[in-house]
Amino acid sequence: CPTHCSFPVPALRPSLSLHPSQEVALGDTVTLRCRVSRPGVLVSIYKEGDGMRQWYRDSVGDMAEVHVDVSTRNFAGRYWCSCNISPLPCTLSNPVELVVLDPSFLPPVMSLSPEGRVTRGTSVTISCQSTYGATFILHKAGRSAPIQRQSLVWGNTVTFTLPRVTWADAGTYGCSYRPRENPFVSSHPRSEVTLELEPGGP
């Protein structure tokens, strides 16, 4: 190629993460970390729907940190970060969702069917009920990610199914919900039920 040829410069894409978790109790602190692959850039963090950047850090190294006291539900939502270093282009980061755990929302009512200890291979249902919930989320103790989620079309109860349970399914399950008016706010604390299996067998 002749010396005057030019090639497009790949755009920088930062990465945004939340610490210690994407779920933060009302009144606690969350840290937003925006990582970039090039030092000395201006980093901006945006919240969906606000139309302007929330925070910025100039001349950062490979990471910019913002510590936020989650004092109200208004911090709940979807966030991005971007960078600025002329003449290199920079795209928006991956979006992250900050979920605020609000104790003013009563926990849902939970139940197991069948009740008591069950044998391996039984199909078990877990019901969660609340008049405030639009989306219900099933959690299992020891796992960071939700097990299942369901959105209500009508009524106030959802049913999660655990088909043909095994020893791996035994344990404590929790249920939370997101209210209709704000999908990034969650009930807190979770209601809980425990699934026990009959002893014996492999």
Automatic annotation (TrEMBL):
Gene3D superfamilies: Immunoglobulins. GO terms for biological process: cell surface receptor signaling pathway; immune response-regulating signaling pathway. It comes from the Eukaryota. This is TARM1 protein. InterPro entries: Ig-like_dom, Ig-like_dom_sf, Ig-like_fold, Ig-like_Receptors_ImmuneReg, Ig_sub, Immunoglobulin_dom. Keywords: Disulfide bond, Immunoglobulin domain, Signal. The gene is Tarm1. It comes from Crypturellus soui. Residues 14-93, 107-186 form the Ig-like domain. The keyword Transferase does not apply.
